[in-house]
Amino acid sequence: MSAHYKASFINLITNAAFGFALFIMMPNSGNAAPCFDNPQSAYKYLLAQENAKTQAREQAIVNINRASEGELVSLNGIGSSKAQAIILYRDMFGDFKTVDELAKVKGIGAKTVEKNRSRLSVQH
Length: 124
Description:
By secondary structure, the chain is mainly alpha-helical. The protein is built from five helices and two strands, in the order H-H-E-H-H-H-E. Helix content is 56%, strand content 3%.
């Protein structure tokens, strides 16, 4: 077996395995999954789907009176510890009356509130 033939065969097996792995990882939704002629097309499709989900999550309105830790960490400048501080503050002092009241939470300042203002709500 020549070196070129071995390399081509390994490349073929690798691409087939990658394509099969992508097929297995496709989420089972009500819609039929699209078919792809090569692994690169499938990969680009999956990246586009993930980017669309990320963009939708980053544009979603967050009700700071009801948001979970996972929803709060989608905000700019809010990590897990600050999200937990928001939830603790809310549990201790009750619902936020205004978005600006979020700045009373330790570690969250007016700049963080301003960066996120368009995505924040205080629905009860």
